[in-house]
Amino acid sequence: MSQGGGFYPNSSPFNQSQASPGGASGETKRSELSHSVRPLTLAQVIKAHQAHTDAEWTLEGNEVGQVTIIGHVVNVTEQTTNFLYTLEDGTGKVEARRWREQNSEEDADKWGDIQVNQVIRVTGHMKAFGNRKYVNAVNIRPSEDPHEIYFHTMEALTVSLSLHNGMPNGPPIGQKSPGNASAYAAQSSGMANDDMAEYRHLPHLQREIIRVLLAQPEHDEGGVHVGVVAKAVQKEGVTGASISDALDALMDAGQIFTTSDDAHFQVSR
């Protein structure tokens, strides 16, 4: 029985941070992400979102590269340039789109003749048109094993729980430290005091942002995404606006700067 071909770079989802799969930075991270494959239920596809149209898709704080889904075909729409398959797996309903090959024989050889009521596996990238999400297929094949859809659901849930809770018998990735501090603050607590000495004059929130940026492995090249910063420092009384103001103040003071885009930050050192 096919298992969908793995899910993340470095062979395991258990090694990933909540910020991004692979722990890589910059272009390396994006390259790994584009070649990784994560199994998702259709409900998870529906739940995934983009911060903006050019942003990576994310699910529960983790970036998503390629996805593999499986479901019953409940509708097939044939268009001039593409086929649109509507899939259902008991958790939701999602469309998968595949584009026609120029040669009709090549098209039939590569994609086969998918019919309503078949169970198929689709691998591809998530896209959105208007408010409708769909999977842009790079591969489609019929599922011949009646148990594959159940295996896929368990695999998708296992990956999600592992990203959220960490390895079995290991500390949860999102585990809170005493005092309701985030995992990122807990990770940085072992940082030498000298590393933060030059920032003692800053307001508390700005110091915490610096601490989070220094604690992340991505800070060396690609910078740390603003979503990671916000999740790490957000607590009662800390709003999105106050985090944004603190980031602006740190940039104006030359303490931090943006890297690959306006959403990734790095400490000026």
From TrEMBL:
Residues 1-34, 167-186 are annotated as: Disordered. It is found in: Nucleus. Residues 175-262 form the Replication protein A C-terminal domain. It holds the Pfam family RPA_C. Its main location: nucleus. Keywords: DNA replication, DNA-binding, Nucleus. Residues 67-139 form the OB domain. CDD domains: RPA2_DBD_D. Residues 8-20, 177-186 have a biased composition (Polar residues). InterPro entries: NA-bd_OB-fold (IPR012340), NA-bd_OB_tRNA (IPR004365), RFA2-like (IPR040260), Rfa2/RPA32 (IPR014646), RPA_C (IPR014892), WH-like_DNA-bd_sf (IPR036388), WH_DNA-bd_sf (IPR036390). PANTHER family: REPLICATION PROTEIN A-RELATED (PTHR13989), REPLICATION PROTEIN A2 (PTHR13989:SF16). Belongs to the replication factor A protein 2 family. This is Replication protein A subunit RPA32. It comes from Lentinula lateritia. The lineage of its organism: Eukaryota, Fungi, Dikarya, Basidiomycota, Agaricomycotina.
